[in-house]
Design brief:
single chain; about 325 residues; mainly alpha; 2 strands
Length: about 325
């Protein structure tokens, strides 16, 4: 090997231990993320209820309207089914207690979109870097293994191959765990953002309920509501304005150069595209270069139309 090849070989051998350490740390990181993910999933299945979230938000809204903010805070803090929602409600309550900015709740909602993106980046890195580390851990020990094979050292060959395949398996496991966690967390966090937006709409919105013919009470009984009415308006046909029909323009729509004539038949009528016998001059015939017409029966029994076969009509 020349000096450059030896340098590359030494760099690859120097990366052997860092790659194995990265594979082990990635596996530990993936296991921790998987544990946190399972806990979040259990909280969601155990405590998430859309109707309960709605009822707590309505009670908190009523408590705010009645001048009892502490009671409203207590109702909001009962939503503990997601760490993202818990942190959002903590910041929302702190805004209500201290700053009281009207635009801050909407800004908090936008900020927590970036919070969820940041939490997803950790598992996405595992899904991307796990297989990369696995491939590096496979290829780096192959060079010493091939050197041992050339020297007849089967023990070194077997040891290096075992290390290479072991690191590959660890890297693939890290990537699989990261991909699974990322895939499910994306759906969970989208649902959390939707819940937070719905909660803010109940707390801050002006129109709480829509009018309809009836509604179902909490006791399961349909209660009548006044129907939505409107006053019909009669049509006044006499006031209808009729637009005049468009007249054809006197001038042509397309510009025509002066002195341009129109070909006419001997009878004086203009020739059309369907005229059976157009009078072509030899120097004006655009099809003269194509040769004579093939002998084929035309509509009048002739070859290719009126006239004798192979001849152009005079």
């Amino acid at each position: 090997m020349n000096d450059l090849e030896q340098l590359v070989y030494d760099i690859a051998r120097a990366l052997s231990w860092p790659v194995m350490v990265a594979a082990v740390l990635g596996l530990v990181w993936a296991l921790v993320e998987t544990g946190v993910f399972i806990y979040e999933l259990w909280l969601r299945f155990r405590f998430r209820d859309l109707e309960a979230l709605e009822a707590r938000a309505l009670k908190a809204r009523k408590a705010f309207r009645d001048g009892r903010p502490r009671t409203a805070y207590r109702y909001l803090q009962e939503n503990t089914y997601s760490p993202v929602v818990v942190r959002f409600l903590y910041d929302l309550i702190r805004n209500y207690q201290t700053e009281r900015l009207a635009a801050k709740p909407l800004k908090l909602l936008e900020e927590y979109e970036f919070v969820t993106m940041k939490r997803l980046e950790r598992s996405r890195l595992l899904a991307r870097l796990g297989p990369v580390v696995g491939v590096m851990g496979t290829l780096v020990p192959l060079a010493p293994a091939l050197v041992g094979l050339a020297r007849g050292d089967t023990q070194t060959l077997s040891d290096r191959l075992v290390t290479a395949f072991s690191v590959a398996v660890v890297g693939l496991l890290v990537g699989a765990l990261g991909y699974t966690v990322t895939l499910v967390r994306e759906r969970m966090y989208r649902q959390d953002l939707s819940d937070m937006e719905y909660l803010l709409e109940i707390l801050e919105g002006d129109v709480l309920r829509l009018d309809s013919g009836r509604r179902l009470s909490r006791s399961g009984v349909w209660e009548p509501q006044p129907t939505v009415t409107y006053e019909p308006v009669e049509e006044d046909n006499a006031a209808t304005t009729e637009l005049p029909a468009a007249e054809p323009p006197e001038e042509p729509l397309l510009p025509v150069e002066p002195g341009t004539g129109v070909a006419e038949a001997p009878t004086g009528s203009a020739l059309g595209l369907d005229d059976p016998a157009p009078a072509w001059a030899d120097d004006e015939d655009p099809f003269a270069a194509l040769g004579p017409v093939d002998a084929a029966p035309g509509p009048d029994g002739g070859a290719g139309g009126p006239g004798a076969p192979g001849e152009r009509p005079a």
